[in-house]
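user: Kindly work through both lines:
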Amino acid sequence: MRKSRKPKHFLQTPQYPGGKTALVKFINENLKYPKKALESKVEGTVEAEYFINGLGNITSVNILKGIGSGCDEEVVRLIKLLSFEKAVNRGMKSSTRKTLSVNFKLPKKKTPTIKYNLVKEAPKKEEVVKKPSGYNITITYKK
């Protein structure tokens, strides 16, 4: 006689379309570093919890660990933009609690590069090619 197996989870939870990789991609594309945090050079991780109803809508967002300077408000804005798939739970209404950590890291400044070309004669005007970034220095010498 064979025993019937119960499903691992009695209730299904709403899932983000595309899974975790799509969620991380969405956050990276839509995250805007707050101006106040850039000026104050604030970095860190904001942890938030949010509740999703059975229809996949965000009902509330709470900051568990914040760093201030507008970063907490940016995480709340991002979470409110999320939309999850419906969870079918045999007609029962349920709310799901999830947590999200968003890391704020200051962008690195690009340093200009300097390139040296050692040429025997000065180049003609047609041969000079301007590049959009960095510096191009030509040193000419005569024997």
